[in-house]
Design a protein that fits this description.
Layout lengths: L11 H10 L1 E4 L3 E7 L6 E5 L7 H17 L6 E7 L8 H15 L5 H5 L1
Parallel strand pairs: 3-4
Antiparallel strand pairs: 1-2, 2-4
Helix pairs in contact: 2-3
Length: 118
């Protein structure tokens, strides 16, 4: 199952705001940009450029990123955009998941054990 509609970034102005005013973290597979929002939940957007490969490859990377984000416990109140770097196209799912978790932890969006159960 994908991400529910309310927790997806869908409009260009929302992406633009995150790119213009958000903070950035990166590793060898991904770039994470976050911007605090006024919602009681997070909203996620995914960027996969044509440099990754054809539509099949880009969609696979997007599906994997969506599933990773859906399964991770996060603190509410952020707009997050995950941009895939070229290496993400050939990365295994486990490596993509750990890269995503690492970036969310570094940015402070990933909930700690006490917050996840609350």
């Amino acid at each position: 199952m994908g991400l529910p509609r309310q927790i997806r970034l869908r409009h260009r102005k929302d992406f633009d705001a995150v790119f213009a005013r958000g903070r950035t973290w990166s590793n060898d597979l991904l770039v994470l940009r976050i911007l605090p929002n006024d919602c009681d939940h997070n909203r996620f957007g995914f960027v996969t450029s044509k440099r990754l490969g054809n539509a099949i490859v880009r969609n696979r990377v997007r599906r994997r990123l969506r599933e990773t984000v859906r399964a991770l416990p996060t603190r509410p109140g952020f707009d997050c955009v995950l941009s895939a770097k070229t290496k993400a196209a050939t990365a295994e799912f486990a490596r993509l998941r750990s890269a995503t978790a690492s970036l969310l932890e570094r940015s402070g969006v990933l909930a700690g054990p006490a917050e996840a159960s609350a």
